[in-house]
Amino acid sequence: MRAAVRCWNRRERALLWCVLGAAWGAAWGQLRYSVPEEMPKGSFVGDVAKDLALELPEIRQRGFRLADRGRTRYFALHGKTGHLVTAERIDREQLCRLVEKCVLRCEVIVEGEMQVYGIEVEITDINDNAPGFKDVDLEERISEMTLLSVQAGPGGAERPELVLAKALDREEASLHELVLRAMDGGEPSRTGTVRLRVVVLDANDNAPVFSQREYTVRVPEDVPVGSTLVTLTATDADEDTNGHVKYSIKRTTDLESEIFQLDSQMGSITVLRSLDFEEDDSYELEVQARDEGGHSDTAKVEIIVTDVNDNAPEVRVSSSLSEISEDAPKGTVVALLHVHDRDRGPNGEVRCSLDKDVPFRLEKSFEDYYRVVTSRDLDREEVSGYNVTVQALDSGTPPRSSSAVLSLRVLDVNDNAPVFSEARYSARVKENNAAGALLLRVRAWDADWGSNARVRYRLWEGGVQDAALSSMVSVEAETGALYALRSFDYEEVREVVLWVRAEDGGSPALSSNVSVRLEIVDENDNAPQVLYPPPAGAAPGAAWSGVELASRSWEPGSLPAGRLTRWLVVAVAAVSCLFLAFLLLLLALRLRRWHRSQLLPAGGGALRGVPASSFVGLDGVRAFLHSYSHEVSLTADSRKSQLRLSPASACDTLPAHPPPADPAPLLAEDPDS
């Protein structure tokens, strides 16, 4: 049994090559399709999504569109299917008049990847035009002496010509009417006709002759309208009317007839409108010179348009970000640019650059596309936004340039902890303050933005003795103000040391701490305690006791009033041990004076055998109080904080005397500050 052999027909082979070509092109960032001309709007061209290996959900997520070049758009991209379709009916003859292969180009941009892919679509020809003649009626004036000949066109190109099958005889027939039919090779073939009238003239011996068979003219594209490009010259050896030559353009297009004008008498060609090198860089005309006898000659005129740097580069932002996080990695794409110069050669060579000292750089993407990417780490606290200028400069003389501005806002990341305005805080607080009194304010600043910079405060560490910090001080979360929750007592608390934490609103939150020292300042809030003499009616054992310094030889009422005019009274305010030391020092000084003036006889003496020098100075006072005193009681208001001096040797203490009926003023020392 013979194996079946599958034969690929022409259409299948063409389709296979298209599929393979699209797959090969996709691998290199270039897709290629072909479509016949004159297809209706919305006709399928190619499955771009499939050829780029993109799934339909990805298309919607990443963003998928055709790049806009600001020109006529011949194609559209279907957003739901990823198909490339025609955006309008395409006429190949209109787009590619003198081009053998008509190719249209466009680009697809994938927004999420900032990636661009090129697409080439070849527009194939269909037999949609019949042959046509410029004029419906033609008239040829031929001399009866014209010889039979076939001429090649200028440059060797062949062209259809009307030739004589036999010699003409004007006397036999002065006019011949013919119909010329042209037929193309299309399927089905199309035809065109023209009526031809041949007028037979009387004999003319010489035909016009051009000075050149071909004329080549180079002209810049910015030549002024109305300028003469070239003047053709043809001569005829005949005389009179047979030697008069007229010029005409035999073969031209509608476009060329709109651009150039030939003077039939002078043979000069002038420009009717501005030339554009980018639109068409060359034109070819066929000019005929004819005399009155019907003799003619032809010449080819080639007009070459040279480029002038008359176009500045175009910079288009095809895709861009409006904001970027400050922690974006180096190399993040922020914009996709298309840079194009319609000029050619050096005039069309473009160099692109960015502003100096910006954290971005340019990278070549695809053909005329560039990507703007980050070149280093961003810091919003340093620069919160950028206006980056992209400049394109061509190589023409003089050079032309253009620019585009990218505006980019840097988004904040919580990368800064709050910073207190001072390294540490301290305040002096008077005792007996009111509960709720403002103690001080702490202030922290966060360099971040928005919620990342919102700072809240709270107590962190601290305390006094066994009391909880939260029972003594509070901090307002929003303002950092510290308030007292109770009244401080200097005799109980001299100093409060605590820590305040400032925490921002970022996620995760960042924080910092600062120490706060509150120094409690003493106030005169304790009245002096008169220890002796006791007040009238005081019960024994009351919260006071005193000492009277007196000689054993004194009689009641015998205390001299001249030298010691006041009672010496020990009064102690239970405020501070420092005040007690100060009181003892004053007491020692008074005892020294008293010792010299009252207690000792002229020849010296002692108190019950104790030398007087033993009671001089602070140590002497202490010894005196120890030997000759009752009890020294330090009473702190109602809290009964007492310092007791042991009355172990009180047996030597003089008995206390009741106060006199009219005592002298008492001197009470108050050690409150």
TrEMBL record:
Chain segments carrying region Disordered: 649-673
Its biological purpose: Potential calcium-dependent cell-adhesion protein. May be involved in the establishment and maintenance of specific neuronal connections in the brain.
UniProt feature, compositional bias: Low complexity: 664-673
Q: The organism's lineage?
A: Eukaryota, Metazoa, Chordata, Craniata, Vertebrata
Q: What is its main location?
A: membrane
Which GO cellular component terms are attached? Answer: plasma membrane
> What is its membrane topology?
Single-pass membrane protein
User: Per its UniProt record, what CDD domains does this chain match?
Assistant: Cadherin_repeat
Q: Which residues form the Cadherin domain?
A: 34-133, 162-210, 211-315, 316-420, 421-530
Gene Ontology biological process terms from the UniProt entry: homophilic cell adhesion via plasma membrane adhesion molecules
Sorted keywords for this record are: Calcium, Cell adhesion, Glycoprotein, Membrane, Repeat, Signal, Transmembrane, Transmembrane helix
Alphabetized SUPFAM superfamilies for the sequence: Cadherin-like
Q: Which domain of life is it from?
A: Eukaryota
Tell me the organism. Answer: Geococcyx californianus
Could you identify this protein by its name?
PCDG5 protein
Q: What subcellular compartments does it reside in? A: Membrane
Listed transmembrane segments: 567-589
Q: Name one GO molecular function term.
A: calcium ion binding
Gene3D superfamilies the UniProt entry points to: Cadherins
What gene does the UniProt entry assign to this protein? Pcdhga5_0
Q: Which InterPro entries match?
A: Cadherin-like_dom, Cadherin-like_sf, Cadherin_C, Cadherin_CS, Cadherin_N, Protocadherin/Cadherin-CA
